[in-house]
Amino acid sequence: MAFDYEKYIRPGKLPHIWCPGCGHGIVMKGMIRAMDTLGLEKNNTAIVSGIGCASRLPGYIDCCTLHTAHGRAAAFATGVKLAKPEMTVILVGGDGDGTAIGGNHFIHACRRNIDMTYIIMNNYIYGMTGGQFSPTTPHMHKASTTPYGNPDPSFDIAKLAIGAGATFVARGTAFHANQIDKLIVEAIQHKGFSVVEILDDCPTTYGRRNKFKSVIEMMNRLKEVAVPVKAAEKMTPEQLAGKVLTGILYKEDKPEYCSEYQKVIERAGGAAR
Amino acid sequence: MGRIEIDETRCKGCGLCTTACHLKLISLTREINVLGFTPAVTTNRERCTGCALCAQLCPDLAITVFKDK
Fold first, then answer.
1. Prior bond to A11 cis, omega within 30?
2. How far is B48 from chain A (nearest CA, A)?
3. What is the pLDDT of residue A3?
4. What CATH number does the domain containing B57 carry?
5. Is residue A47 a part of any domain in this protein?
6. In this predicted model, what pLDDT tens digit does every residue of A137-162 receive, in sequence order?
7. Of B13, B64, B65, the CB nearest to A20
8. Which domain holds residue B20?
9. Please, what is the end-to-end C-alpha distance for chain A in angstroms?
10. A12 domain residue, yes or no
11. Helix or strand holding residue A218 (H, E)
12. Residues of chain A contacting B9 with CB distance shorter than 8 Å
């Protein structure tokens, strides 16, 4: 029997607004499979997002959902988690929402190590607002605001998250659809701030400006650049040039913020939870 | 033996399923669906192995693959 996605989809919401070939739909399916694997209750799961193409995702999923201000998903989600620590909180957003406008919220959520999962769909561009360059647009690639090439070096979201103090960092691609749900399952199970970066494609605003003839070509590019962490150990630095590591990149155990905050409440004479 | 079901009212004709299928059983039609796209259709249905790679890669949740025993 085929997997039934409909039980986690809000009735009557499909077809979704994403463009033909956009990988966000693949990520949403991976997320639904991960939620089903873990048996998450709809009333005990909060999905929080900011603004953007990727942030439209919670609208389609039948859970507790919160669609907030641009870049502020981490701030709102921190409030949800502190008020209801028993809830599973999942954040979704794009690269612009997460690392540019919400960059500060993102690094401080990483630093606090609060028990949440942040799924960043990195499509290298601001898709919804017309294809402006984002912090992850590769060097000298074109966007609507950089028609002659983007002079800025780009962010490596996984390294940024590790540096800021996230305790679980993984990376996948929309092409490797079977891997997405496994990464998200591990990320949700991890106690602490987990970041899952999923490399994605934006055929409408990024692909057509950067000489990708079709969605299929963009997906093939993801297939070519992705190297699993284990395979990369046997490769030389020359072979790894221009490649992107996928899989679980970093994992450690550190004190979690909600339990640390509870200790402060008890020390101040507040009620034990 | 597998059985591919494509929901034509959801398909946006991106063509990802056509590359996912190793046996090339899926192709895009020229007819326009309710969304204004040319949806995917299956040919040579009896050859489907039920690997469900097309369903896994469909961003629009339009493909369901049933595996008959």
1. no
2. 14
3. 85
4. 3.30.70.20
5. yes
6. 999 999 999 999 999 999 999 999 99
7. B13
8. 2-67
9. 43
10. no
11. helix A215-225
12. 15
